[in-house]
Amino acid sequence: MLAAEGEIGAGRDIQTIVPGGFSSAGAINGNLRARAAATFLNGALGTLTTVAADAGATPPTAAYDSFTPADLLPYFTIEKRVGTSVRSANELLTIQYSDCIVNTLNIAANSGALSTFSAGIMTAGESYISSPIVDDTATGQPFSYTAASNDLLVFHGGKIQTGDAGGSLAFNDTFQSLELVINNNVQGDEYTIRPSRFIRSFTEGIRDVETNLTVVFNDYHQYQQYTYGATGSTTPGYSLYQGQLDFTLANWQLQGTDVYTRASGSNIPATNAQAIHFFLPNVVFAGFPVTLASGRIVVTTNGRAVKPVGSATPIVEADVRPSAAGF
User: Fold this and answer.
1) Structural domain includes residue 158
2) Contact between residue 208 and residue 304 where contact means Cβ atoms under 8 Å apart
3) How confident is the model over 52-78, as pLDDT tens digits?
4) Is the entire prediction scored with pTM above 0.85?
């Protein structure tokens, strides 16, 4: 709203209010599944490439989708229904949001809890519609996807590998929580002088990819690396530690050298095998603030991903199994 206040001769009270620029924003939150991960990773990163199954590989691999960063992000149409039955007295409201863009995506895995996601959405327009556009013609209802208990991606299906940037990876079982945050810093304030009060367009900003992590402190080398910049250093220097992070969540337990792309195995579900995988080739960490406490000592810190200089390797790569999970 735009209020005409403080006009000479109008007294102390506001007498006129006119509409200002219109926009909508909000978040979609939920328990983490491959379907949600694929949909919102496509929106948050922008490029989707399908990797076909390879029965001739050793071991044979399943198909999956790979998501990498793009300069321009895709736009979506989102519909929100409030109520229990479409086109009946129980339907309270159906809203369609147009020109939607995924500004932020948080994916979090916590020990002893369900993994979750939160997608921050910005939209240029909305309208009330009498019925959803995407319908199942057989039922006359919107398409629905039934959630199953065996497709949740939780901490005991996780595998984390860490190492120096550009070096080798090693299994790391000290993480109590890990959160990946993708922020596109979308500018949503492009109102221009023209016969419209609606946003003219969104502009993608600097892409931030960060990690928030809590780890069990059991090795002083961690402190040396994260605080002083390198293992063996005994005082702060002028360089920051740069590591790499490989993170997988599956709806089965990954054993030993097992990988999320493997088509079948003793622990892999015969049907409905789901997994997500992230690789950050270069993460700069902020430090390692150790606090004395009784009992187990845990450290909470964060790191910021950077794109390797002079390399075609993306700042972050994400994979989702199965292929076309969210589409």
Assistant:
1) yes
2) yes
3) 999 998 889 999 999 999 999 999 988
4) yes
